[in-house]
């Protein structure tokens, strides 16, 4: 194979008519000396690594008929001298790095048959002058950066058969009467532009065999007169915004092989005339809003290989005669409203490789005939109401790789699904399968996911699971499995999800779980009969994000090694017999948003270090333990916490003031402890049962009987009836809020930054002083409130003046 | 020659596009994958986001409800760089959007206003810029809105006063301007919620200064 640069001395061969150096490994630039080859008719340098510009000197090769420089790395612009090559028939500059505009002068080359410019970086409009090329048969300018309107008109380009301008930035509408009556345009590819308007203008292109307008912004409906395009073989209109129905005239396009209309806004049902399309191989209607039943006539389209109706609203049953589609390879009907049973004839589509009927309302059982689908490698039937035992014949499906029958009502044994040893995904979640986990399943050594949760499987976890070294996810939750965790599971070192919760598994939680399965992100062993201590090795599993061991019989302390689980979001150890303290080290688990340690035998104080868990959000539940001491003041740092349950412990002392900072809190349970004293005002909106079973007083509990020493000065008038107290309180809050707002106005007006409550105090007094004026002029919108301000102020002066300011401080701090 | 290869490329392209949905996840999974594609994730926290799964419910940092609908997205403090995209607005059952303490840049997409069930929007401590979209006033379930410590500009949209469930709001440490609304839930937010916005003037003074005073 030739390599290196083109020798400039070639230019001395002045009689040369043909210079063909294609498909070599030439590099360097095209020597300008080639311009001396005045007799040259054929210049073919395609598929090399030539770079640099097309030399100007080539302008002298005026007899040239074929220029093929495609598939190089040529740079610069397309030279306009090409317009002077009056004998040029083929110009191929495709797949280079040419930029700039297409020179209008090319329109002068009346002899041009083939013009290939695709795969460059050409910009600007397509020059209108190209319409002068009456001999042009092929124009391919796809995959450039061309913009502007669709300037080419086959009306003038009477010889044009191929027009390809896909993957550019063309805008505007397709011109009316795009083709002339006797247009020879057979292939039109305008995909991947920004064309708008309807496709009606193309109906005049009656010779079209392939039409691809996909990935534009076309609107309107598919015209009834589409059947004027009688020669159509391939029709691709997907990824547009077409509306309305598929016209029944589509049935007249009897040559059609590909009909791709997906991802539009098409409505109504499939016309029965579709059954006339005997050659149709690919029918893609997915992601539209079509409805109605799938017409039985569709099964007359016996050439169909791929049918994809995903994401529509097709209803009714799958046609009984679907088995006529002997060539069907892909049947995708997911996410529709199909009901009724799966027709047994589907089993006769014995070319079928992918069957997806998920997310419908199908009922009945799997037909026995499915055993004939020996080519099947994917079957997804999830989210239907399919029921009954699986036919034994399924054991013959030796090519199955992906099985997902989850969320149905299948029963009996899962064994018929284990005929293949090529399985990678095995998902039967949420059915009523029973019996043991069949050992045949473990023949498929490439299994990555086994999900059998929410069934009625019994027996042990087979030790053969350890043969599955690719296993990433094992979900056997909510079955009736017994025995211990098999030691061989420690071989599945890639496991990220291990969910064995909701069974009757027993024994210790083995330490190898944490020593060997270090990729675990989620471990759920909850609701089993596990006993013994939580292994100290737990710290090795530092990738854990969710750890649930609740509702077992675990004893001993919470290991301090838990501190190493720094990615942990959820920790649930509730309902065990764990003893000892809540380890302060838990503060290292900084990403915890849910922490449940309730219903154990934990003792000692609530560690103040819990306040480091500032992402705690869903819940902090320490209820039903034997925790003692005071509620740490630092708990107020948990600003995101929404639920706090400390009930049924031995906590004592007063509620710390800091609890009022828990502004996100919307459920609080401190009941049944030994707490006493007054409930902070900011917590008074919680119901009584948040506080009951303590010695707490104040709203919402009963009034504090003795005048408290340190707090609640506004309650010092014990003789005033409760109602009046309440009114005072409400008014005071309103008053304080308003005074506070006013204070901020004042401070800002004076360009003082956000002030402390001390400043506010003095400011608010000042504002209250000439309140009326402010309310009238500046707080127009707060009119109704302002009257309340007046009255409450009156009350407070009648009561205790200092209490207002005191309360305001409480609220503002 | 070239003509036949064109036909082949058309057919293969169609084939590719057609087969993909059979393997694709549901729309929420697709939205999350679209989101993932915007992100740089040096700690590989999104490694488990595998679009070939039926739904995203087994992905880490995703929580679903019992009907397999995504209700939580937890990527707080994960060393992620990238932008928020309109696709997040397609997670229509999302209740918790926890993207705090990362390096998210660019604007808050207005499509977040489509998250009708959102309870908590935690975007604090990122590099978000641009204005707070008015569309967030459509989040009628929102209780917590923490956008503090970003580079947000513009005024506080008045439409937010209609968020009657809003309990906690933090806009502090941004570059917001104008005045602070006083209506609706804004009557309860402490000054700390707005501090360190140099151009933010105090509460609005209706009739005296427009809400974007000083913007």
UniProtKB/TrEMBL annotation, chain A:
Record's bilayer topology term: Single-pass membrane protein
Transmembrane annotation, as ranges: 723-743
Keyword Iron: no
Keywords: Glycoprotein, Kinase, Leucine-rich repeat, Membrane, Receptor, Repeat, Signal, Transferase, Transmembrane, Transmembrane helix
Region Disordered, residue ranges: 782-801
A Pfam family this chain is assigned to: LRR_8
Top-level taxonomic group: Eukaryota
SUPFAM superfamilies, sorted: L domain-like, RNI-like
Compartment(s) where it occurs, according to its Swiss-Prot or TrEMBL record: Membrane
Gene Ontology annotations for the cellular component aspect, listed alphabetically: membrane
One term of GO molecular function: kinase activity
Protein name (database record): LRR receptor-like serine/threonine-protein kinase GSO1
Lineage of the organism: Eukaryota, Viridiplantae, Streptophyta, Embryophyta, Tracheophyta
TrEMBL record, chain B:
Transmembrane segments: none
A Pfam family per the record: LRR_14
Record Gene3D superfamilies: Ribonuclease Inhibitor
Domain (Leucine-rich repeat-containing N-terminal plant-type) ranges: 25-65
Origin superkingdom: Eukaryota
Ranges of residues in domain Disease resistance R13L4/SHOC-2-like LRR: 79-172
Keywords of the record: Kinase, Leucine-rich repeat, Receptor, Repeat, Signal, Transferase
The protein's name: Receptor-like protein kinase
PANTHER family given in the database record: SOMATIC EMBRYOGENESIS RECEPTOR KINASE 1
Gene Ontology molecular function: kinase activity
Signal peptide segment: 1-24
């Amino acid at each position: 194979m030739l390599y290196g640069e083109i020798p400039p001395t070639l230019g001395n061969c002045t009689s040369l008519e043909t210079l063909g150096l294609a498909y070599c490994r030439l590099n360097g630039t095209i020597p300008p000396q080639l311009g001396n080859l005045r007799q040259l008719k054929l210049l073919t340098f395609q598929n090399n690594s030539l770079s640099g510009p097309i030399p100007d000197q080539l302008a002298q090769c005026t007899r040239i008929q074929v220029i093929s420089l495609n598939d190089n790395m040529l740079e610069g612009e397309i030279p306009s001298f090409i317009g002077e090559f009056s004998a040029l028939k083929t110009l191929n500059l495709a797949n280079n790095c040419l930029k700039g505009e297409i020179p209008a002068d090319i329109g002068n080359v009346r002899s041009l048959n083939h013009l290939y410019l695709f795969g460059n970086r050409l910009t600007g409009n397509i020059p209108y002058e190209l319409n002068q090329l009456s001999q042009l048969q092929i124009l391919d300018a796809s995959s450039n950066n061309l913009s502007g309107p669709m300037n080419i008109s086959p009306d003038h380009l009477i010889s044009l058969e191929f027009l390809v301008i896909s993957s550019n930035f063309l805008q505007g509408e397709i011109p009316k009467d795009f083709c002339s009556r006797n247009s020879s345009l057979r292939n039109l590819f305008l995909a991947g532009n920004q064309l708008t308007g309807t496709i009606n203008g193309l109906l005049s292109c009656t010779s079209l065999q392939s039409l691809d307008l996909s990935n534009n912004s076309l609107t309107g409906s598919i015209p009834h007169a589409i059947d004027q395009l009688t020669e159509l073989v391939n029709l691709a209109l997907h990824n547009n915004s077409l509306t309305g129905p598929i016209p029944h005239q589509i049935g007249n396009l009897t040559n059609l092989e590909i009909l791709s209309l997906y991802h539009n806004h098409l409505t109504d049902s499939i016309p029965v005339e579709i059954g006339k399309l005997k050659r149709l191989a690919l029918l893609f209607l997915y992601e539209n809003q079509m409805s109605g039943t799938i017409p039985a006539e569709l099964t007359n389209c016996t050439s169909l290989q791929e049918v994809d109706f995903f994401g529509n609203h097709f209803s009714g049953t799958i046609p009984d005669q679907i088995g006529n589609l002997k060539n069907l390879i892909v049947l995708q009907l997911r996410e529709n409203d199909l009901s009724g049973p799966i027709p047994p004839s589907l089993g006769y589509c014995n070319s079928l490789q992918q069957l997806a009927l998920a997310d419908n309302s199908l009922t009945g059982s799997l037909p026995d005939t499915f055993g004939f689908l020996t080519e099947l490698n994917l079957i997804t039937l999830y989210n239907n109401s399919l029921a009954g035992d699986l036919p034994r014949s399924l054991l013959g499906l030796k090519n199955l790789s992906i099985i997902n029958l989850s969320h149905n009502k299948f029963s009996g044994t899962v064994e018929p699904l284990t005929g293949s040893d090529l399985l990678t995904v095995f998902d039967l979640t949420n059915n009523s399968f029973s019996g043991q986990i069949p050992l045949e399943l473990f023949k498929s050594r490439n299994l990555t996911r086994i999900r059998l949760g929410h069934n009625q499987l019994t027996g042990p976890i087979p030790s053969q699971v350890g043969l599955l070294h690719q296993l990433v996810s094992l979900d056997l939750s909510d079955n009736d499995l017994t025995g211990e965790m098999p030691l061989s599971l420690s071989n599945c070192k890639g496991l990220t999800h291990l969910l064995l919760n909701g069974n009757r598994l027993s024994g210790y939680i083995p330490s190898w779980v944490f020593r060997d399965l270090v990729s675990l992100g989620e471990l759920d062993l909850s609701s089993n009969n596990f006993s013994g201590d939580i292994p100290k090795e737990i710290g090795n599993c530092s990738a854990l994000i969710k750890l649930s061991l609740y509702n077992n019989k675990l004893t001993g302390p919470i290991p301090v090694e838990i501190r190493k689980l720094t990615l942990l979001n959820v920790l649930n150890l509730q309902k065990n017999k764990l003893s000892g303290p809540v380890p302060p080290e838990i503060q290292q688990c900084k990403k915890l948003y849910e922490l449940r340690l309730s219903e154990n035998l934990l003792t000692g104080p609530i560690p103040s270090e819990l306040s480091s868990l500032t992402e705690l959000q869903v819940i902090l539940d320490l209820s039903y333990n034997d925790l003692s001491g005071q509620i740490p003041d630092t708990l107020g740092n948990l600003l995101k916490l929404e639920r706090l349950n400390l009930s049924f412990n031995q906590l004592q002392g007063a509620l710390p003031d800091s609890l009022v900072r828990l502004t996100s809190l919307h459920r609080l349970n401190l009941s049944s402890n030994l707490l006493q004293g007054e409930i902070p005002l900011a917590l008074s909106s919680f119901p009584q049962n948040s506080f009951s079973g303590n010695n707490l007083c104040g709203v919402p509990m009963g009034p504090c009987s003795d005048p408290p020493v340190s707090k609640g000065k506004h309650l010092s008038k014990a003789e005033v009836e409760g109602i009046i107290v309440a009114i005072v309180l409400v008014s005071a809050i309103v008053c304080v809020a308003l005074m506070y707002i006013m204070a901020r106005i004042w401070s800002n007006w004076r360009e003082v930054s956000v002030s402390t409550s001390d400043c506010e105090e003095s400011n608010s007094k000042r504002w209250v002083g000439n309140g009326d004026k402010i309310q009238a002029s500046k707080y127009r919108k707060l009119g109704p409130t302002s009257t309340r301000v007046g009255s409450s102020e009156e009350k407070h002066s009648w009561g205790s003046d200092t209490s207002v300011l005191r309360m305001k401080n409480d609220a503002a701090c | 020659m070239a003509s036949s290869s064109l036909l082949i490329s058309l057919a293969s392209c169609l084939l590719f596009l057609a087969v993909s949905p059979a393997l694709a996840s549901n729309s929420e999974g697709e939205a999350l994958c679209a989101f993932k594609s915007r992100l740089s994730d040096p700690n590989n926290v999104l490694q488990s986001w595998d679009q070939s799964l039926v739904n995203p419910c087994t992905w880490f940092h995703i929580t679903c409800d019992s009907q397999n609908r995504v209700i939580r997205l937890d990527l707080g403090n994960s060393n992620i760089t990238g932008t928020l995209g309109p696709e997040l607005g397609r997670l229509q059952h999302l209740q918790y959007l926890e993207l705090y303490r990362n390096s998210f840049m660019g604007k808050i997409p207005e499509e977040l206003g489509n998250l009708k069930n959102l309870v908590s929007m935690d975007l604090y401590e990122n590099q978000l810029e641009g204005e707070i979209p008015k569309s967030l006033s459509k989040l009628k379930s929102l209780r917590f809105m923490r956008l503090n410590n970003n580079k947000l500009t513009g005024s506080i949209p008045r439409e937010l006063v209609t968020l009657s469930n809003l309990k906690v709001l933090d806009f502090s440490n941004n570059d917001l301007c104008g005045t602070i609304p006083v209506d609706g839930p804004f009557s309860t937010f402490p000054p700390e919620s707005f501090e360190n916005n140099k151009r933010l003037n105090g509460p609005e003074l209706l009739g005296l200064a427009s809400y974007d005073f000083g913007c």
